User: Fold these one by one.
Assistant:
Number 1:
Amino acid sequence: MSAALAALGQLVGGLGTAVLALVGLGCLVLTAAASLAGVGLLFAPAVLRGLHALAGRERTRLARHGLDIVPPEPPPTRLRPALADATTRRETRWLLVHATFGLLLGLLGLLLPVVAVRDTAFPLLWPFAPEGSTSTSLGFGTADSWAEASVVSLLGVGWIAIVLGLGPGMARLQARPALRLLAAGPDTDLSLRVAELTATRAAALDAHAVELRRIERSLHDGTQNRLVTVTVLLGAARRMVARDPAGADEVLERAQSAAEQALAELRAVARGILPPVLSDRGLAGALSGLAANCAVPCRTDVDLPERCAASVEATAYFVVAEALTNIAKHSGATRATVTVRGRGGRLKLRVEDDGSGGADEAGGSGLSGIRRRIAAHDGVLRLTSPRGGPTLLEVDLPCGS
């Protein structure tokens, strides 16, 4: 059932790009015809840009359904180079197939559930139907009794069986031209993407090493010293208990205080590894807690239809925590806003304040650490912070990594 529903969603999404492909195909034909008279040459670059943008949109749509397509190098938008460009020719072939065959499959994905519900529920609708009206969604047959109306529901069950059985296959058929024609060709140089992934892997390893050093430093400089203090105080109390019970009691009280501080530091280190509030309340609740504890009045607006991977939520949490800390310490802001949206397999995060601006990664404000964390997930960080403000931090992360 879930596979069929996902397939229907994919087909309906493909219907949207198929309609755009049909419009684009019409523009392409008109431009080609007008080019014979010389007029279409003026519009050719815009039409080519629209073709490439639509192909990119289709790659993004399929990626949301788990069908990743390695994009080719940006194709040319000038007419003469485009005529000799293999990527442009493949995208044009995809446009023709998707505007026809893909449109038909998208329409079936939209109409089949409608007719299935209509025919299955027809016995309930029959008493209100005009006399002599067609009973079935196929446009033939009339029902004059409850028995005949009930037979129509059998047709609806058949439609449901078709949706469940053929829906995933139809979605694969609709996506096949894009997988074959919109991917980078065998002659495409993928060295830039390889270099990008290599840098991302290095950033992930660096972020991991930095996190390990932070945990080691917290344990060594804080918790370990507290525990040593507890050990020394307990030894002193043990030696004093016979000759000076009152002094031993005071030393034990100090040891208890040091043990409590060590426990609090251990809890802080554990929260720094993976905050338990994320598993208990989700990202929305965790960010609400950060906003409530922020020294600057902060508003959160979180819209996540489903949970992301735990590592992604943890990264988003730490990004917001670091950003709000920077706002409280350095910005002089009077308000801050945290906005989170989850759409199409991506988590988009915005942190904005009305402070003095001028945030700089080289200034030791923790922004370089934020960038390393985001790069480890192959995400994107954009920072806009002109002098005088405001400051806008935007993060785009894949939900499933």
Note: Residues 162 and 348 are 37 Å apart (CA to CA).
Number 2:
Amino acid sequence: MSDTPALPATGREWHLLSRPVGWPKPEDFGLVEAEVRRPGPDEVLVRNEYLSVDPYMRGRMSAAKSYVAPFELGKVMQGGAVGEVIASNIDGIAPGDHVLHFGGWREYATVDARQTVKVDPEAAPLSTYLGVLGMTGLTAYAGLLRTATFKEGDSVFVSGAAGAVGSQVGQIAKLKGASRVIGSAGSDEKVKLLVEEYGFDAAFNYKKGPVAEQLREAAPDGVDVYFDNVGGEHLEAAIGSLNRGGRIAVCGMISVYNNTEPAPGPKNLARLIQTRGRIEGFLVGDHYDLQPQFVQEVGPWIRSGELKYRETVVEGIENNLEAFFGVLRGDNIGKMIVKL
């Protein structure tokens, strides 16, 4: 192990102090100075350089049973992070290497080396391993191609389309031969970005009128695939525009994450009988077998510039919480990243 007196004694990390009710508040969290633990057998100590904040983290702040354990009160939160190894207790990973891991929301993380992935900062910017080449990219790829069984010629509707996942869904659909790709977003600036930069055929600002009406106008011939990041009114509108044999992949429902009462379900589910439509939820964790295929196919598109991406970068761990709130508000264009 590389272990010198220069290793840090303490580092800052974010703790969950109380479980938010409705919208999270700053007083639910605390930025704490904590001791940096030296790595034990098969562990590495990482100085984090980039942290990820994502909508799913809101669910982990609740004590409700879910697909992943809730954050513990009074303890550091976790999330995707990429950084430089500064001490190692395992063969194959040396100080100076860069790794992707899940010990985010802190400046220094001591993690099981077997649960890290070495990444090459020369092959792509480090931040992309948290987004377009990371979990969000694979989420888009698996949800569109496997869960929604996209095929050439399909018409595709994506909600939350200017976000990290949605923007990649639309572009992959176009690159693989979609007949039409429609996106919804929450500002005119994002709508313009979808059409002019990401190549969507049509896009609309869902805040400017009923989603069902705007979707019918943007997709007069209906949609074959709906990639749902939002839920609520968007899901009901998509069911209303679904073609025969249409598929809906449910990735997220950010519109209801902060609700204190259950949101009403779509009123038009009976239409799935007419259309023989299918709704299926998915988690990226069930599709890691696609990772090599994903990198092999999407990597060249990114390098060639055929697949474009944006990042919203917030600097400083002291601003981690504000970055997370920004994701819930929809402030970000593309992946929200915190640079330490």
Note: The longest strand covers residues 43-52.
